[in-house]
Amino acid sequence: MLLNEGKDSFLEEEVSFENAKYAVIPVPLDVTTSYLKGTKFGPRSIIEASRSLENYDSEVDYELKNKIFTLNELNLNGDIRNAMEIIRLSISDILSAGKIPIMLGGEHTATYAASLSFDDNVEFVIFDAHADFKHDFLGLEINHASNSRLVNLRNKVHLIGIRSFNLEEKEDIKKKSILAIRREDTEKPEIGEKLLNSLKGKKVYISVDMDVFDPGIAPGVGTPQPNGISYRDFLNFARKIISGSDLVGMDVMETRPLGDNNITEILASKIIIDVISLNESKTDR
Ligand SMILES: [Mn+2]
Asked: What are the φ and ψ backbone dihedral angles of 188, each rounded to 5 degrees?
């Protein structure tokens, strides 16, 4: 595993790898992206954005300090299968060291690779505008539009905020009895309770495709979709998920930097800080 010298660390954290509880791993995967390229620059831009944010989380009332170590960016030259194997092995290394991986993407396909490093009883809560339940897409079996279907072959998935899928995907999700919270239902209070009940006591991995958010607050993504969720919606779900379950990993994927407009990477950094703060304040109190 490559360790960096700490000068490019998430949130300017200075803790050693040994003493850190979370390991940020930048995964610049950008191979099967179909619409707008550039997600490979996402991880770096999220780390840069995090360095402009406070480590005191006013949403959660928690000061995040000496918890996160930032690893060097993975080198993912080669085809998709090769890249997937490198990602799987790297996440496995983090888990063997007893750390909670926080993966920065990069295209969402990396979540499937990461899922293979976990036990099959870990459940995946996937925030995404897209159902990503497609079979072959553009002739590739492993691709970003199949991510949730591939993860679900082994680990149970729950989808939040979906609003882009075809009829075949809709049927497939129904047949597999997946809890799929559509965008139009995300603000219903009973939905959060339903999710909370289905995750109670479970080991949970949270995967966030930044396109779940409204393009107004997250325009820098590979495949934007109108009518996304708000930051407040996300926080409400995150509180519910973390309060009742055991967080074993997280990723924030599909950030595509736009240059001067960096609000997407600011939001990406902020939700990582929020999730870690929620998780830590749960164990502290
Ligand atoms: Mn998506």
From this structure: -75, 125
CA dist., res. 61 & res. 57, Å (int): 5
CA of 7 to the centre of ligand 1 (A): 31
Say what angle helices 263-284 and 231-244 make with each other, to 10 degrees.
30
CA of residue 206 to ligand 1 center, whole Å = 14
C-alpha 15 to ligand 1 mean position (Å): 33
CA distance 13 to 17: 11
Percent of the chain with pLDDT over 70: 95
Burial class of residue 215, CB neighbours in 10 A (0-12, 13-18, 19+): middle
- Residue 256 Cα to ligand 1 midpoint, Å, equals 12
User: Which pLDDT belongs to residue 143?
Assistant: 79
CATH of region 10-284, choose from 3.40.50.150, 3.40.50.2000, 3.40.50.1820, 3.40.800.10? 3.40.800.10
For the chain, where are the alpha helices, taking DSSP H only?
A: 42-50, 80-96, 109-115, 147-152, 167-175, 189-199, 231-244, 263-284
Per-residue pLDDT at 105 exceeds 80? yes
Q: Does the structure show a pLDDT above 70 at 7?
A: no
Peptide bond into 106 cis (omega under 30): yes
The set of residues, in sequence order, having a beta carbon less than 8 Å from that of 283 and lying 6+ positions away, is: none
Q: Tell me the pLDDT tens digit for each residue of 10-31.
A: 999 999 999 999 999 999 999 8
Residue 148 CA, ligand 1 centroid: distance in Å: 10
Cα gap 17→10, rounded to integer Å: 13
- Ligand 1 centre and the CA of 130: distance in Å? 4
Give the lowest-confidence range in 17-21, 77-81, 82-86, 195-199: 77-81
Å from CA of 124 to ligand 1 middle: 15
